[in-house]
Batch of 4 targets.
Target 1
Amino acid sequence: MLQDDGAPAHSSPAPEPWAEPLATALLVLADGTILEGFGIGQTGVAEGEVCFNTAMTGYQEILTDPSYAGQIVTFTFPHIGNVGTNDEDLESLDAAPASGVRGVVIASAVTQPSSWRSSSHLDAWLRARGIVGITGVDTRALTARIRDNGMPNAVIANDPEGQFDREALKAQAAALAPMEGLDLVPPVTSRETSFWTETVWAVQGGYGKRELGQGFRVVAIDYGVKRNILRLLAEAGCDVTVVPATTSAEEILALKPDGVFLSNGPGDPAATGTYAVPVIRKLLDERVPTFGICLGHQLMGLALGGRTVKMAQGHHGANHPVKDKTTGKVEIVSMNHGFAVDPATLPGNAVETHVSLFDGSNCGLTLSDRPAFSVQHHPEASPGPKDSHYLFERFVTLMRENKPETEMAGR
């Protein structure tokens, strides 16, 4: 068909060869800023608080960490997904898709996997877990924005056709509730009590398994616990029973634990503390040896009468230097938290044991009058790689020292 001037007729103008490719994903910040990119993972819309993670490796563990529930993770390292994904590097207890990270922001397009351990492409893995993603974003600029202005709420949208109602997405992002006051533990905690027997991974044979019955009886309160924490407890000689976050102190004590572990988890610790703090106080009063990590550390601080505060950009990464004030040793640790314990609000029997060398924030405490300690960082993530594994042995030593000699036979 020809137009009147003899030129071919077209339903729409042909794109210029230098035209920008169609954006198939958007990241819309609460202030109305729109970042364009290309969709990866699940199509649709997700919402959450945007944080950045500085780790160069371990993206699958990060994306399955229940502590990221309610958040959109921006990776500062550009090449994410290039070693693929597998069925082993999962951190949430539920191997199936579960409430956790809402979305992922990546700088570079994902190449074909290059690893002998890979079983699927990151794109397919994200779709299977229902995680909405975007690539092609200037993550350095986004990280600088978060560093200077704090973690914003946002909506992430993925549509292969590039059809977006931008004004509606802006309104949705602006209407999101802040992280303060949100208890995000219920969607990620265990539904029932279970036993944990898996130990650490080895090149030959994969994960090991320990027999129950001869170790210290440890009750792990699951606020969103990571698998590798439980593996290292088992590796240290513990018979681990995992209980839901709302388990009462009486139910825990009925299990006759040698020690109690307070796990990591998402959300505002003060909100979770409405039901967790009375339980922890009871356990401390009963002088049960207690060890907490991340949210567990914050909840212990609250149980002692301290206060937690929201951080501007939080600590998320695998390159954080922390000083153990009891030994003078500096450890390279992994962190993932947006709240911190205010050490100025802690009572005199709470002694600060660890401190961040980035900003001086509290990273650990121990009690002078009861067998309990906790740390803000994640020793099980092993970025050092084993700088902080001694904490699990410290917990075992604490249980041994507080267990009657008549009960020590065979342990």
Target 2
Amino acid sequence: MSVTAAKGFTAAGIAAGIKENGNPDLALVVNTGPRRAAAGVFTSNRVKAAPVLWSEQVVKGGAVAAVVLNSGGANACTGPQGFQDTHATAEKVAEVLGADDHGAGEIAVASTGLIGLPLPMDKLLPGVEKAAAELSEYGGEKAAIAIKTTDTVHKTAVAGGAGWTVGGMAKGAGMLAPGLATMLVVLTTDADVDAPALDTALRAATRLTFDRIDSDGCMSTNDTVLLLASGASGIAPEHEEFAEAVRAVCGDLARQLIGDAEGASKDIRIEVVNAASEDDAVEVGRSIARNNLLKCAIHGEDPNWGRVLSAIGTTSAAFEPDRLNVAINGVWVCRNGSVGEDRDLVDMRFREVVVTADLAAGTESAVIWANDLTADYVHENSAYSS
């Protein structure tokens, strides 16, 4: 169910001592080939962590032999030393893997944790050696556990076709807002697919999954999603079939991320329908997802549809205010921009809440996933650095 579900990959997850609590904090995923094709998408935040800057360059080469990931420190906003530390990490991985036919230039690096603190390289580099010694085709789950920060559970998924597989792992529970990608994700496949095809499939999948979850409106400096292909199955699936499997894994992981959002007690599915364009639908959905008043109301199980209208009104989408309709859990509490069905009919006791916004302006639609805003979220993020 993880990055080793596909043939041609080994993985490990260990405690290197980066986290003071002694929990696992270093993961290694290795592509044993025969193919080493790769694609990636990264944060569009202009403040990028050193590992993002490094891995962006690595992925441009179209080949990734291994990915090393650490939790317990983001290595973001750490100046020239941070980039040097990323380079040193990649070189260490290449060294311990005996990668004579490639070097650090085919090693992707990803980090997650607190921004602004240098990584303890005296622990990380020996940790790479330890992780390399524990690489296994059964190591995917341990790798997924090692990249957790405030996550309460590790996140894995798998899909595929006849004789080939796509697997993946993800971390993320806060700072989830789209910008090409969110959080850290490693996807693997044993399908025989080249780098350009991987890139096309990954970007299409990301647009409909990771780019449409919005936990708290905060975009990370470290967001990284990588897709690696080993070709070990010897099967080259049709592009549409392969792209659908990638989308399925990404969609599964994205849904798990929202389900584990920091402090959340409700998962909110925001459906925008009858929009003039898909872009309008996404813009409206994102505005609703980021409305803190609405998120608080949903936490309190209050079907406050006025806050939905207020959020819609801040967008540039095409609509007429007196034609807007809003349903909460299937009850159309707002009709034609005014009072609809009795709000007391709305049952909000369960974990999932569905908000439907009908713009009555066209035929396009989009779904954005979000979560409620709770006191636990405030507590967790006010005490995070301590």
Target 3
Amino acid sequence: MTVVATPPAPKLELPPLKLGPITVDTPVILAPMAGITNSAFRRLCREYGGGLYVAEMVTSRALVERTPESLRIISHDDDEKVRSVQLYGVDPVTVGQAVRMLVEEDRADHIDLNFGCPVPKVTRRGGGSALPWKIDLFTSIVQTAVKEASKGNVPLTIKMRRGIDEDHLTYLDAGRIARDSGVAAVALHGRTAAQFYSGQADWSAIARLREALPDIPVLGNGDIWSAEDAVRMVRETGVDGVVVGRGCQGRPWLFGDLMAAFEGSDQRFRPDLRQVAESVYRHAELMVETFGDEGKALREIRKHIAWYFKGYVVGSELRTKLALVTSLEVLRGTLDQLDLDSPYPGADAEGPRGRAGSPKKPALPKDWLLNRTLDDAQTRDISFAELDVSGG
């Protein structure tokens, strides 16, 4: 991997992130992303830099029912030092049972609760970024989860958004409730559910949350496309660490850049096309190991192709072929047709990636916004609102 020097930057005076008994020397967290942050991708990221690498979001109900897919999602490589799992749920009882299972069966060292997902199939059931609006439900879930996790000394954190929309912001109330309930840290994505991933993340809201919760770690998320963005977020908001999602799609080496930047190093990864092609092939090999099914693994790698080759000179015919590969042999042969000596394209390979979507009215349960507590009908519906496996 080509490593180049950038203008020197002073070292950030940012201490290691403490989450209960866990110390994260480089305070960078890989955001859980459905269909992306499986063990194969987490391994690629870990090979470049330090941090905390969270598995894909899994629903509490599926975990309690021990569905094969939910158990795959929470599986970790033997050398993953911190086994991090993110749970989604809307029923305090089910969430509590899932946390208890993870703790009693020693399946996780860190548990995160998802209150940030903006996907309609999640919010229309009252989950994800819709849930903190209901203070009683949010409080019950967090308190139950913290109680169960504490029995095994497993730190529990939450990840959330600013709120449902600009008229229904929840992050300050939710942050204080979570802090008072005993969470180890709070992460805030600086967008509302209505924004989806469009527009710009509001870093000033992250700064306000940091100021409102001086006694626990606060982590910032949103629009971190480079190591320099992460450094700027820390300096502008005062957060204790950053959470990186779409910025690392097709760029597992971003975690090497982040670690270097936080240490004040001017080293950055700038891969040429040959190095990107090798990363793609290695990613596919690891996916085969993860799924034990070459066909499924190659179908999964297709979504990563456009991210890996963003900005690089790859003809449309080859891009189409890469998006239709069916085996490692076909992938290898197609990658070898690239102009592998093409250099790093610079800014064209950087910046925003992944689907931003567009602002939209969030899908919510009936009468969800009428008040901040559940009514009788909503209370009855909650226990039936869990999704099958993953909310993303």
Target 4
Amino acid sequence: MNQAIRNAWIAAIALFALIFGALSYVQVVGADELKANAWNKRAILQTYCNDRGAIIVGGTPVAQSVAATESCKFQRTYTQPQLYAGITGYFSKNYGLTGLELAMNDQLAGSSDQLFLDRVGQLFLGNQPKGASVELTLDPKIQKLAYDLIPEGQRGSIVVTSPKTGAILAMVSKPSYDPNLVATQDADAEQANYNELNKIPGINLNQNVSGPTGALLAPGSVFKLVDTAAALSSGKYNKDSVLPNPAEMPFPGIQYKLPNYAGGNCYTRDTATFAFALQQSCNTPFASIALDLGEKAIADQAEKFGFGQEWGEQLKLDYARSVFPKDLDQAGLAQSAIGQRDVRATPLQINLMTAAIANGGVQMQPNLIKALRSPDLRVLSEPKPQALRTSTTPEISRQITEWMTSVVSDGIAGGAAVRGIQVAGKTGTAELGTGLNNSWFTGFAPANDPQVAVTIVMQGVDITTGAKLTSPNAKKIFEAVLNK
């Protein structure tokens, strides 16, 4: 065999190995990734006209497949679409899948291993396989109440959870949209609707997250709960500690001075207890704690509350990880300690932090799925509450709860007070540099036996509007959940 023939054989074998390797990767290693890709039209077209399982809230489908009169036997439709769009997502022939439609696609399409026996049975009967239904933990009344509490034209999010189980009772944001506009079988209308919806600020149809799970916002003073936990954990502070409370905090070498909150009574004292500093949301005491403990202590505590961390397997939706910045100078650390500078958190992250305090320091996995049912309504799975991480100790959580209760009873979160029930809360105002703010409330009730945690954020509002749309609205949600 001469050299030319030998080289040709080597080249042929190498090409064969390359093709075989590529096919093996696609069929074995990368199969699941390709199948789950929202832009894989072949996977969508295989099941697009099938009888897809329903997504159910409170016994009523909010997404379901109905008999169609067009080219497909079934059409995906959404009821109360804007109320649930951030959770269901959409099922579109040309634009793919988002939300639970994507995350639970195997179950909804009937291709999950959990439905193998059902598929075999349908084949013997000559029927087309049907998908499983997904029951959510959402409470339809609380979901609607929360959605209606965000005024039309106002960007904002509300999250309501059970601190003890992690179950999500309500999760809404505005602006929202109608998934039916993207799920239509009219290709021209589908494209036109998609383009128009993408022009609306706050709506991004390409992402598999919603405002509560995806909007990274400056948390403002609700972050002071992190500072408080870090301080008590350090052993350098206790419930009787006296904190410096100057009207302004200067920094060497720069003209900037960190001011105290001007809307409360912080200016009436040069020193403050933890209770007073939280009640009035004073800035300088918490900045001084951060400078004393150092960046690592604050960052470590933020991480224990979930900043930059995973949220477990039960949420199913994609999410953005909250951020505490690194390599801060003194001014940057002071600003970060009050939830400004480059600190960013999602509304669900702030709710999980709050729920961990309510639950004795243990953060539960956030959970949207109540049950998965086969087409004949058999229960295939029922996720059980699972602890996610330990954020702080029971003793520290009890102490912070006591102070948060005084924020509502004697401080600037008085609008969240509920007659006959102790409410624990914390407000936050994150300045945006435009004269407007992100206005926050986060808290739980009853303080001595927490049943519900509520987090509200209204984006780009003035002080007065923010005060009206946060604590008082939290009160309405507390009353609705606890009076059921």
